[in-house]
Amino acid sequence: MSEPCERRKQLRNLNSKAWGGELLVVDSPDTSLKSNMAVLKRLSSAITTETQNTLIDLIKRVSLEKYLDELIPATADGLLSLKKKDATAAVEVLSVLHQRFSSRFTSKLALYFFRSVEDFREPEHLPVLGTLLRLYCEMYLVDLIRLDDSVDKSMLPRYLVKSDRPLLLAYVSQLLSQHANNTRLLPIVSGFVKKFEDELLRENEFLGPSERLSLVKLLTKYSEHVCKMTENMHEQISGLVNQVNEISRKTGKVPESLESELKEKKDEFAKLEAYSEFAHEVFSTRKPSLAQEAEPTAKITAISGLSESNRWESEEQRKFYEEVADISEMVDPSLLLKRGPDIEEKGAHKDVFPTFVKQLDAATTAEEVDGKAREFWQQEMYNKSAESRLYRHAFSQGINAKAFARFLCINRNVFKSLIQKIESKADAILKDQLTMSHIDYNTVRLYCEMANFSLVPGTKFLHMLRFLVVNVGEGVGLDLLTLFFDYSRFTILYRPEYSEDVNNLIHLLQSVTSRLQGDRQKAAQAFLSSLAVAQEKVQVETAKPKLQFLEYMLKRALQNQVFFPALLEFEWDHESYTTIVDFFSHPETIAYDEIPALVSLLKYLGEHDPVLITVVVDGLIEEFQSGFELNDFRQNRKRMAVASYLAQLAVKRLITPPLFRNLVKYAIFESAHGDPSNWFWAKMVCLFFELSKKDMPLELMLFDYHLLLQGELPLDLHLRVVKCFESRGATRAHNVAEAAKRISEMSKASRQMPESEQEDDEELEQETDDLSESEEATEDTGDSETDNDSEEDDDTESELDESMINKQLDMSIQSEFDSMLAASLKTSGSTNPRARVHQPLGTAVRKDQTENGANKFTLLTKSGNKIAARKIEVPDHVDFVAEQLTNAELWERERVRIKDYVLNQHE
After folding, report:
1. Domain count for the chain
2. Domain contains 822
3. Which terminal residue of the chain has fewer beta carbons within 10 Å of its beta carbon, N or C?
4. Contacts by residues 790-797 (CB-CB < 8 Å, ≥ 24 positions apart)
5. What share of the chain is helix, strand, coil (3-state, %, to 5)?
């Protein structure tokens, strides 16, 4: 017999005698507080092999009788920090304590071990449980774990109350069942088996034959469970690898979330496979059946005559999605009648639902899902919070969307509101994904699986597909569309009622793809080539080598002007010319820093073909105006690129100064039609002023006026506006009236300025432009003609500016007049009424003369913050008319007075 077994036998004999009453007697024990507290402190800190002899010596000399209540907590604290190598030393120390105090100490310590499985339930507690398991077994073998009459049965955990199993078997069984699916338990179990292999697999005097056989059966059953987990994990990894390869092939990248998930599953699989090999050698269990990964099948580009018969890949898949019974046919209908929002939660134990959803996520076949659906109702898990918990689980990480969707389909007539709620939230999440860089793969999979079970209305599903096709060039639109076809390919392509709409979507996708640029177009073309369309082959247009080389040369020309002359050597046929126009019409496809080079290249080519500049500028201005009409925040980057492009064109004098000033004023005036909280127009105008070197005082004052009308600016925009004004030597007005006065004065001054001074200003501006142009490699010709055209355009522009400014001033003055009028009416309503001759009817009466000489009055009435107008015609011989004519004249004089006051209050 080995030395450890001999020592274990000796301790077992001594401990058994202590249970019988033969205790260790200490002569003249030390009862001082200092000595007793020193022992408790050493026990609570740690028990090690080095301190073993010192602790045993102290326990044999110190009394500890008065400190038994503190002895158990101190020992428990020390055992929590115990290391595996010190387990033998701990058994020696605990045996000495047992031999001194018997059941007064050991029974309470055993209760601590019994409850440890329940107290340490979380996965992060498994390392502690592993150490306690080894120590528990060591103590059990030396007879330190025993239940005698001194133990209060009410203090025992549930798994021991009605169990006649041996204490070691019960403890190990509870630990394995509590964490059966956690891979962190694998090294603990394998280490336990290796440590006590002789006691478990061979006959010995410490464990009886039946107890030893039960332990081996328990560990064998657990090993078989691990074997199944290994096979399931291998299938999950294979599916995930195929998914990653498919996405990588179509998009050219691997999502970070999928990559990390794949790595995590491979690490878990390595642990499972290693334990399965170990269990096969020790317990002779079967090895996991790991099928070799099948080679990915090539995607066909066309199928002639798709039909319902070849919709599914296998008969098993068809049954899973099509043969779905209703829950009323699977369980007793009386169970369904018990459901309702007001029922009390007196069903199963509170831990049943988490276990249920874990088992539902682990289901892989239709039979397993159907069984969980029956269990849900038979165990009466439907209570007031069941639907809320199912709703939260639908959007949790790691959900088995396929099984969960079939579960919802089985309960489709019971969970109608829940299904609609899940579908609505998933729809909103998917639409929000386009503006984000991260894809919620669980939500995408759940939405598609619900569509496979017809839980999503067909019109809404097709609308979502159309939404993704239209936005395939935005954000992650192509990735989402690819995932939809991966998860619901057979539903989209083979469902008869979808065939016509899907074919239209494919044609729409071809059209959208042709307008994309660069890598996005290539990825979309690769996706198109993988689709199978009924009775029609998808024709993917690829650029000709000549056009591809032309695109390459255009991009290189942005980096080096040496390539400029080479572009003139191309034969500018229709296709080449269209490619060049598209290149110059999409500044959003290049970096902002390359826009000046793009303008220089356009100017160079425009010298040989002036029509090119006209075509490009017309398209840019149309894009600029349509951006304000649509006002889509997703197009803001493109709109800002177009604005920067136009400003750079103005700097190079490829667009005239009057046209550029009109663009600035267009952006300013559009502020009145948009959302006041959207300051994008202001950022665009700031960009114009920052890039342009031209003096535009009138536009600057208009900008200031409209900023004051809109209200307080955000801090970042305020700093940018202040910097913009300071760079032009101007200051902002303090209020709207001052800004309006500045505009009026500037407009009058421009009309009164002699023509000679205007010409001098134009010459000065022209000299400034010529000075900036002298730094370029090439110079423009025909400056005098441009100046003459500019002068003529400026004359026309001044007339347009004056009419637009007067219109804007009249609108703002009328707005202020109406607000002051409403305030005065509110005040006058609370005071005593005036004489009848001056009392207005309603809010105000304004007189107009009709064509036939009759008197027509406009009655203004105030309802809340709104003022309504109504026309009233009254004969001129009525006394009422005489009174109201007087009121109308007084009212007109008051209006003129308020108007003069607004314009002159700061003079």
Report:
1. 5
2. no
3. C
4. 790/656, 790/657, 790/658, 790/762, 790/766, 791/759, 791/762, 793/656, 793/657, 793/658, 793/659, 794/657, 794/658, 794/758, 794/762, 796/658, 797/658, 797/661, 797/662
5. 70, 5, 25
